[in-house]
Write a structure and sequence with these properties.
Rossmann fold, binds magnesium ion, globular, binds adenosine-5'-diphosphate, alpha/beta, about 15% strand, about 250 residues
Amino acid sequence: MPRTLAVANQKGGVAKTTTVASLGVALADLGQRVLLVDLDPQACLTFSLGIDPEDLDKSIHHVLLGGVKARDVLVTLDDGPDLLPATIELATAEVQLSRESGTEQVVRTTLRPLSAAYDWILIDCPPTLGLLTVNGLSAASEVLIPLQCETLAHRGVGQLLDTIHDVQRLTNPGLQVLGVLPTLYDGRTTHARAVLDTIADTYSLRVLSPAIPKSIRFAEAPAIGHSILTTAPKTAGAQAYRELAAALL
Ligand code: ADP
Ligand code: MG
């Protein structure tokens, strides 16, 4: 079975999508077979890896609503991993699925036929704690929580952990919290480190290493349609994701 990592935090802008793209490419560079899953209707992961959602006939939306097989919408990326792409239609899929009961495991069921083909599946969750995120958590073996180390960053972490505990109780008892990943990290400030220590102590969460440094290169990469590992491979940010990938193996 592949290690299936849900990257989740209901706060936007904490580098969920960046982490899925960069860690995924780093794992692929280490010879791992990697599938990236875009579970955010904003389709930022899809777009940032060079696929224009508007050009897609079929996306994960059609797979979740049935009738289309996941392998028929897969895209193989130049950067290495395969991608299950999203479009804005995913928002309507969430609404439709919300009207039915027992739809927390649709993503899990959808991914099952693909599991033999991959060593890693990384799921990019949307910035909510709604049905799509619950589906991502229900399909995962582990959850990684990116966290920007600033004051108030931890507001909402308790809620996220409550959601994780509900998923563990109801749909996915094996789900483990891999830890928090410090992102947009400015190690020059003692403030960032203090915030991180507080969060680790308050919630008894493991802090993953290395922290991902803040760098303008991350903002440039999506516009080029590749991860930072391709656009700026020698930078500290790319190196940090490479080290994280090696540490996870
Ligand atoms: P989320 O998916 O959690 O909403 P994103 O991955 O889309 O967050 O990142 C939000 C913004 O921050 C994007 O513009 C991204 O390019 C930028 N970003 C991500 N990681 C870093 C970093 N380490 N340093 C600087 N900017 C970053
Ligand atoms: Mg995102």
